[in-house]
Amino acid sequence: MRTVLGTLVCVALGTLATAAPASPAQDSAPNPPLAYHGSAGQMVTVTAPKPSSTTATLIAWQRKGSQWVRALGPFPAFVGTQGIGEASETTSRTPAGVWTLTEAFGIQPTNGTRLPYRQVTGHDWWVSDVKSPHYNTHYSCAPGTCPFNEAAGEDLGKAGPVYDHATVIDYNRSPAVPGKGSAFFLHVSSGKPTAGCVSIPGADLDAVMRWLDPAGHPVINIGISPQ
User: Fold this and answer.
1) How many domains does the chain have?
2) 130 CB burial (10 A radius; 0-12, 13-18, 19+)
3) Do the domain assignments include residue 29?
4) Residue 50, Cβ neighbours under 10 Å: how many?
5) Domain span at residue 198?
6) In this structure, is residue 33 part of a structural domain?
7) Residue 83: closest CA among 215, 169, 216, 193
8) Where in this chain does the entry annotate a coiled-coil region (predicted)?
């Protein structure tokens, strides 16, 4: 991730895009575009045409026996301004790989997601101070009183509409390696590439978040489309 005006931000600044209606599932959906060999019952794929691309396609998949069936999408997505690949605290790149989706948050009340949900205020932070033992975790404290460098962190409640709703991407969380990157989320699109997160229009995000089921142990699979 990178810092902007002294504050780490995952989202890009820009005019908010109008949320598109959620796309219905298609019965004749192809197989998922990215390989996955785990046991999850739900998978969100995010694929870009090349590593430097800042736009991608997001599709939600449900496991049916030994097959994957498209549940939602495809939806247009933005990724980092430096594309997809190896992420770090000093880049604006979306991490490539498979990560669990276990919790959600938002400035607004819950959109009906079944994931554990936290409605955030100006006292809710995501810690990106590499020297802090709380690195890459949520922490609650009043501004000016936090036990970490607030300039190297994100005040979730002050991010604006892009964080009306969001799902945490569990990249670099267990264990959190300082400097490998923090604060990666699936959130509402601003109509611009991000500083490393994945973003989609608000209505599409609501549909995905309502579909996510903790019992399905959902994962997000981020990578480059096969040629």
Assistant:
1) 1
2) middle
3) no
4) 10
5) 2-14+38-224
6) no
7) 193
8) none
Active-site residue flag, 123? no
Q: In a 10 Å sphere around its CB, with 0-12 CB exposed, 13-18 middle and 19+ buried, how is residue 182 labelled?
A: buried
- CA pair distance 122, 142, nearest whole angstrom: 7
The amino acid present at 132, given as its one-letter code, is: S
Can 187 be counted among the known catalytic residues? yes
Could you write out the DSSP letters of every residue in 120-174? --TTEEEE--TTSTTTTSEEE--TT--SS-GGGEEEGGGS-GGGSSEEE--TT-T
Cα Rg of the chain (Å, integer) = 16
CA distance 107 to 43: 25
pLDDT in tens, 115-155: 999 999 999 999 999 999 999 999 999 999 999 999 999 99
CB 84 within 8 A of CB 224: yes
Instruction: Give domain status of residue 23, yes or no.
Output: no
In a domain, 117, yes or no: yes
Distance, in Å, from the CA atom of 9 to the CA atom of 19, rounded to the nearest integer, reads: 21
Residue tagged active-site, from 10, 134, 146, 187: 187
Contact 119, 107 (CB under 8 A): yes
Per-residue model confidence as pLDDT tens digits over 150-203: 999 999 999 999 999 999 999 999 999 999 999 999 999 999 999 999 999 999
Choosing from 10, 134, 146, 197, the catalytic residue is 197
